[in-house]
Inverse folding.
């Protein structure tokens, strides 16, 4: 399955959502939009409400993850601001006592012609937007 960037991104989001579910979260929304701001996945468990940005890259093998560097590097300050804007809008309309958290999931996929991409690596960066 040699896909477009959009198809690969969607497949990465599917894998990230499945990973969250395996780790005890319920996916509440996908591709939540407010104006031109978007959150890829909103998920929750008993204590947390996660706002997850998913970044997927193709990679040739496990030793050479991506020629473009770490996917999380694509989460620029502008992207963070837009994601935070959407998260605040979601929280205004859906108040909760759960702890909100901004996470990033990096996925590295190996693509081969006419085959479903193989997940090489998934890196879940929890609380990714906190000040260092």
């Amino acid at each position: 399955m040699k896909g477009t960037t959009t198809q690969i991104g969607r497949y990465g989001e599917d894998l990230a959502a499945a990973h969250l579910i395996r780790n005890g979260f319920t996916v509440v929304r996908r591709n939540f939009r407010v104006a031109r701001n978007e959150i890829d996945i909103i998920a929750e468990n008993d204590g947390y409400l996660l706002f997850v940005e998913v970044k997927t890259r193709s990679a040739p093998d496990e030793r050479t993850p991506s020629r473009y560097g770490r996917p999380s590097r694509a989460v620029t300050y502008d992207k963070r601001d837009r994601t935070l804007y959407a998260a605040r809008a979601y929280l205004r309309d859906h108040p909760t006592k759960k702890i909100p958290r901004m996470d990033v999931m990096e996925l590295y996929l190996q693509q081969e012609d006419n085959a479903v991409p193989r997940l090489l690596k998934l890196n879940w960066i929890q609380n990714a937007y906190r000040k260092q």
User: Anything to note?
Assistant: Residues 5-125 form a domain with the Trna Endonuclease; Chain: A, domain 1 fold (CATH 3.40.1350.10). Helices lie at 5-22, 77-93.
